[in-house]
Amino acid sequence: MASVSFPRYHDTLGGKLCYEVLKSKRKEYYDFISSQPKIASLLYAMDRAESKEDIENMIKNNDYLIFDRYISSNFIHQGGKISDDKERENLISFLSYLEYEEFKLPKPDITFFLYLPTEIAMKNKEEQRLKDENIKMDAGEDDPVYLENSNKSGLWCVEKYGWHQINCFDDTKQKQKTPEEVLEKILKVLAL
């Protein structure tokens, strides 16, 4: 089993550009969170296209490849900037064509949406920042409206595209599920 996380901030030109607009000291100048979704998506798509050979090698040499944020993340985050369902569908069609057809990136066999309520996600990020002052939050992680819209877009994609939603917050216990509990849910869906 192998895994890869995107953006690859230090490995590709696209990843470095994502870092510049999301995490650098100059991130405020770019206003990337408010940028036009198609244009914003191109940096992430570029990062993945540059990673294609690495992805293909990981697929070839492993039984499973887990993507931590892949093309579907663009659907969620850039789709969250669009309130009209038809416009969001058009964006997702464009992104699917660009990355799967033009760039020939592999399609995932299954997509999981790990759902965490926005207020819990923001609290977690703040706790991380307090524990380690070197952690750099990206522009979206500091914006509750952006995060909430991304969450709504993710839930919409679950319904529209048949993704598997994994709830990462236990409402009855009022606490976040452990990584082991989340993994257990994923393995159950995969029947492993």
From TrEMBL:
Gene Ontology MF annotations: dTMP kinase activity
Top EC class, one word: transferase
Enzyme Commission number(s) from the entry: 2.7.4.9
A Pfam cross-reference name: Thymidylate_kin
Keyword terms, alphabetized: Kinase, Transferase
SUPFAM superfamilies assigned: P-loop containing nucleoside triphosphate hydrolases
Domain Thymidylate kinase-like stretches: 13-137
InterPro entries per the UniProt record, alphabetical: P-loop_NTPase (IPR027417), Thymidylate_kin-like_dom (IPR039430)
Protein name from the UniProt record: Thymidylate kinase
